[in-house]
Amino acid sequence: MKEKITMNIFSRNSIENAKQQLMKIADKADGGNREAVKRLTQLGYEYMMTIVKMESGNLADSITWGYDEANNVGKIKVGAKYAIFVEYGTGIRGKSSPHPEPIAGWTYDVNEHGEAGWWYPTTASDPNPTKKRTQDGTWIAHTKGQPASAFVYKTREYMRNHAKETMRVNIYA
To answer: What does the alpha-carbon distance between residue 147 and residue 99 come to, in Å, rounded to a whole number?
Structure first.
């Protein structure tokens, strides 16, 4: 929807009226902008929750979102310390299915385990079918790593693709 403002440039009252109309439009746009940022952040969070594997430990439980009205900033936070390994992948599996936008210095199969993989310490609740209890009572499981999930990258792309429509709908609604 486009707003149309007409005025007589030789009339002080007409100019003042046009100024008031412009201020109302700016206020509406600002409010729409704030609502759009909040809504886009929420959409991003909801999308991320649909693509994060629920069997990734407490990763999904560590994801939150919020909106700072004073600064008009939306944030999606991932609290699990191992989230970076899920995002970028690890081992030989990560090397064969890397992240679409790798970070400088990220190394797959850093210890060169290759197809042999490695054993890692875990808990009884780990869904890995190779997990087993050792003689001392601790749990271990075998892995060859994991492909990059790129859940943060995918969420960013989703939000980019929906930003223009979200802004348009909220500002002009």
So the answer is: 8
